[in-house]
Each structure stands twice: as structure tokens, then as C-alpha cells.
Design a protein that fits this description.
alpha/beta, Spore Coat Polysaccharide Biosynthesis Protein SpsA, Chain A, seven-stranded mixed β-sheet, two-stranded antiparallel ribbon
Length: about 260
């Protein structure tokens, strides 16, 4: 059986120290924190299970709204993952005692998949229709790879009946697959970071990458709970975007009713 390394993305040293004090992630045998952003790290520099991304030779911490992708980029570009399997989660998660064993069990069956923990429907308005990540993802993938993601998703669902994606960006996979994804996403960066929704675009791009590269997805429900603390406050914008979307829908419906009945 192969070994799993777990990396926890975090951006606040006091929260990190609290996690360590409470032994929050001791449930897994091999874990490290990857500290992203440009905040103070003076209290944690001495810890041997902390990687500070902005001090690495290869980092893109200037793009803080890309959230966890900057951690993935740093891990791959600096060749910091030493085991064949890797799990990538956030600090604001709680994991089940069977998280590690179950993850390895499924990856042993299909090492190159993206294994998710919180499946969510691609048929929901929040996947691409009303989420602030939709526009930057569409523009960037279309510009760089000449792929219309809306057509891609529709055709994929028709062919496979698979309607789920790995919501958020808590995943496990092989180092090979993660490397391929990081390199695929890298050309999108310059365009995608022009948008506040670039982090949401990154989350959704994992499913897009999987479809393009014929990678299957599996899901381990009940192994991880994400508290979604929204530290970059981008979900507030997403909610406003969704509210505006439904307001337009309601307005359009009322107009149709008025026209039909000559009101």
C-alpha cells in the first residue's frame, strides 16, 4: 500500500498554532501546513511541519485570490511532495478518523483520479451560471485552450450522466495528476487573476481539467467537513451575484406574464 501526504493550506499563524495545540490534524500520520499569503510568520518559522510558500524559490503568493492553487503551485514547482499520493485540504476542515485509510484505499484502485470529499451538483446555478468564477473560467479556458466550458459540461453530462464536481478544492490524487493539473492551469493565471472570482474559477477548473483529460472522479462522503470561513470574503460577492441572477429571472418571468395577459 502506498503512502499519503496531507497538506493543509492556511494563512494565519495564530490559527495554525491553535490547530497544533488542539492536535486537530494528528488523526493523519503524515501532514504539513502550507502557509500562503504574505502575513506574519514569525511565530511558526521554527516548526518543522510548516512550509512558508512566499519563502520558496518558486511561488506566486502575489496572487492571493487564487487561494489554494498558490499552495499547490508551490508544492509542485519546488518538488516538496515526497510520497506518491497527496491530499490537499484547508485549515477550516474537520476530518474523520478513517480519512487517511479510506483515501489511500480509493487511490490504490485509481491513482490518477481526482478524489473529492464534498460532491456537489453541476446542475445547480452555483456551478457555472451564477457563480463569480464562471466568467473568468470561461474567458481564460476559451482564450488559452479554445474550449467552451459550457458546451464541454453539457456534452459530458449527456454522455456520462455524471452530474457531480469536487466542490471547494479538497482533493486527493497522485503527484503525477496534480503536477499535470498545475501545469495545465498555469497558462490561465495572467488572465484569470484579473477577476475577483479567480479563486472560484480555480475550484471549478478541477472538474474541467478532469473532463478534458478523461480522468474519473470518485467521492468520499462523510470523511471531511468544511466550515467555509470565507477568509477572502469572495463568497459574499458570490451570494450577491446569485441574488442578482434570481432577481433577473423573476423580473423576466413577470414581464412574460404581463405580456401574455396584456397587463
Amino acid at each position: 500500500m502506498k503512502t499519503l501526504e496531507t497538506f493543509i493550506t492556511i494563512h494565519d499563524q495564530d490559527i495554525l498554532l491553535e490547530c497544533e495545540k488542539n492536535k486537530k490534524f494528528k488523526i493523519v500520520s503524515n501532514y504539513k501546513y502550507i502557509f500562503v499569503g504574505l502575513r506574519d510568520t514569525s511565530k511558526i518559522k521554527h516548526l518543522n511541519n510548516v512550509i512558508i510558500a512566499n519563502e520558496l524559490p518558486y511561488n506566486i503568493e502575489q496572487h492571493r485570490l487564487l487561494v489554494a492553487y498558490t499552495a499547490w503551485y508551490a508544492l509542485i514547482k519546488n518538488k516538496l511532495i515526497k510520497q506518491p499520493y497527496v491530499a490537499l485540504i484547508h485549515y477550516d476542515t474537520f476530518i474523520n478518523k478513517n480519512f487517511e485509510d479510506k483515501t489511500i484505499e480509493l487511490l490504490d484502485k485509481n491513482p490518477d483520479q481526482f478524489l473529492g470529499y464534498i460532491p456537489y451538483s453541476m446542475l445547480s446555478e452555483d456551478f457555472l451560471t451564477s457563480n463569480i468564477g464562471a466568467e473568468p473560467l470561461y474567458d481564460s479556458v476559451n482564450s488559452i485552450y479554445h474550449i467552451n466550458i459550457y458546451n464541454l459540461i453539457n456534452n459530458y453530462i449527456k454522455k456520462t450522466n455524471d452530474t457531480f464536481w469536487q466542490s471547494s478544492d479538497h482533493i486527493a490524487t497522485s503527484v503525477k495528476t496534480l503536477t499535470n493539473f498545475v501545469e495545465w492551469f498555469e497558462p490561465l493565471i495572467n488572465n484569470i487573476v484579473k477577476y475577483n472570482g479567480c479563486g472560484h474559477a480555480f475550484e471549478r477548473s478541477i472538474k474541467i481539467f478532469s473532463i478534458i483529460n478523461y480522468l474519473s472522479n470518485d467521492y468520499l462522503q462523510g470523511m471531511l467537513e468544511h466550515r467555509q470561513l470565507d477568509s477572502h470574503a469572495t463568497q459574499q460577492n458570490a451570494l450577491k451575484n446569485k441574488e442578482n441572477f434570481f432577481r433577473k429571472k423573476i423580473k423576466s418571468f413577470l414581464n412574460k406574464v404581463k405580456n401574455t395577459f396584456n397587463l
